[in-house]
Structure formats: structure tokens, C-alpha cells
Write a structure and sequence with these properties.
single chain, four-stranded antiparallel sheet, 2 helices, elongated
Length: 117
């Protein structure tokens, strides 16, 4: 193995772990935003797609979505996050996160939401 091959091999795992760390950072950030979002904004949220540039300079496609889980015994708002790198094999196998809202500790004030507008 030549010197340049060793440099490429040693930098490859760092590059991969950096992309993974960037993606997980974005997932955590979006999860925290969805958890902190007021119900007035969360109910009509739907599905959103955006391109985000990580601190390392990599670009990621971020998809966030919300939907009501109308379970027989408990219902709530389910929020999902999917992060896709711009290129590479992870474009097809995403990083993801999940948040559930509407539990007993999550206060919901019906007067805050105007239904039908």
C-alpha cells in the first residue's frame, strides 16, 4: 500500500462517521423543533421537504411529516423526520427519527386551534 492509498483508507471512515454525525444532528434538531412546536402550527403542518447544509458543508434532504394516530385506546400526533444525504449510498437508506405528541404530559388547549379555517 502506497502513502496515498493509506491516506484515502484512513480518511474514509472519518468521512463516513462525519456524514452520519451530521445526519443525526439534523434529525435531533428537527425532532426538538417538532416537540417544541405549538399545536396551532403542528396540526396543519403536513409534509415538508427542504435542503439543509450541515456544519461540515454537506447537503442533506430533510423530509418532515405529521399525522394523527387515531388508535382505539389512545390517539396523538405522530411526527417523523427522514434525512437523506445529497449523494452516496445512503441516499436510498435514510437516517430517521420519530416523535409522538399528545400524551398525558403534552398540554393541548382546544381554544388555541381554529378548526375549519
Amino acid at each position: 500500500m502506497t502513502g496515498s492509498d493509506a491516506a484515502v483508507r484512513s480518511s474514509y471512515p472519518r468521512a463516513m462517521s462525519s456524514a452520519k454525525a451530521d445526519a443525526k444532528l439534523i434529525v435531533r434538531d428537527r425532532e426538538e423543533r417538532l416537540e417544541a412546536m405549538p399545536w396551532r402550527e403542528l396540526i396543519p403542518y403536513g409534509t415538508r421537504r427542504e435542503w439543509v447544509i450541515a456544519p461540515s458543508g454537506r447537503r442533506f434532504l430533510v423530509k418532515t411529516y405529521t399525522f394523527w394516530d387515531m388508535d382505539e385506546f389512545a390517539s396523538g400526533m405522530e411526527c417523523g423526520v427522514r434525512v437523506y444525504p445529497e449523494s452516496g449510498w445512503r441516499r436510498w437508506w435514510r437516517y430517521r427519527g420519530w416523535v409522538s405528541r399528545g400524551g398525558p404530559d403534552d398540554w393541548f388547549e382546544p381554544a388555541d386551534v381554529e378548526v375549519g379555517r
